[in-house]
Amino acid sequence: MDRATRLDLAMDMLNEVIERDEDVPLKTFGLSMAPTIYGGEWVVVRRVNAEKVGVGDVVIYQAGNVFVAHRIIRKREQGGKVYFTVKGDAHLEAEGEIAAEELVAKVVALQKKGKRIDMNRPRWRLANKAIALCSAWVDRLCKGRVNWRDDAREGNTHPLRRLFIGAVAYVNHQTIKLLMGKWAAPTKRELDGTAV
Amino acid sequence: MISLEQIVRRNEKTASRVLAGEAIVLTPQNSKIHSFNETGSRIWELLADEPTVKEVVAQIRSEFEVGEEQAQADVIAFLEELAAKGMVTFG
Question: Which domain CATH number covers B80?
């Protein structure tokens, strides 16, 4: 069995388990959701009705052979269909939109520093909403005024623009860290699961 | 210690697929994927019918041309490993 087939089957099985309405722990990789979720940390996901998902929630959708956990920063309805704009907290721009039926699950808890953080608690719902607002602002700023991607494509790397983007990314990161409080940055030992 | 008369059941929380004789199993409690060799995959397939350990040994003996003692030791060792990883329970 080759790697691609194995991955296909693994995704199929994960979907099956999530469909059973059970909480499923998933180990994350990558830094697109830092500082909320660092690669190596565990999240708990649960199947959820798209109607019950809103701005601020971290949701799971499938992109090829991986599940992606990113935050909803906007929600809109068109022609009776619901679409979500999703963005990694560490990214400057949103990836784009996903349709409600593409949603696989919602992140209901984070496993940080040996403790389970319930994302449905009021303190975290508020923090998630605030992070989403901050993320939406960064996305709008980068897309609307700076258009840094096009600039980079055209070879326009004016130092002031780069400085501006760096500043926005820094403020975004620090704001999220502030909202996450002591849960923001795990140590390597905690990521390895050796600390409680 | 597992006895030959015990019934072996797959943990219903697992999900598994068998393709071209190779089984892969997902254990949701840790989101790990386990894959087995030919014999292990066949044993996993047999467990779908909730057999006794004795029945599994007998079936493996007939399919893989292996002596009774060897089959028994290997099957029990494999089932113990599956139990330790939360993939099966004994009744």
Answer: 3.90.930.60
Please name each of the domains of chain A with its CATH number: 3-191 (2.10.109.10)
Residue range of the domain that includes B64: 8-90
Query: What would the DSSP string read from start to end of chain B?
Result: ---TT-BEEE-TT-EEEEETTEEEEEETTTTEEEE--HHHHHHHHHGGG--BHHHHHHHHHHHHT--HHHHHHHHHHHHHHHHHTTSEEE-
Task: Name residue, tokens 């041309």.
Answer: B65
Which chain A residues have a beta carbon less than 8 Å from that of B31?
14, 24-27
Domain count, chain B: 1
**Cβ–Cβ gap A9/B31 under 8 Å:** no
pLDDT tens digits, residue range B54-70? 999 999 999 998 999 99
Name the residue among B13, B26, B35 with its Cβ closest to that of A14.
B26
Instruction: Express each pLDDT in A3-12 by its tens digit.
Output: 788 888 888 8
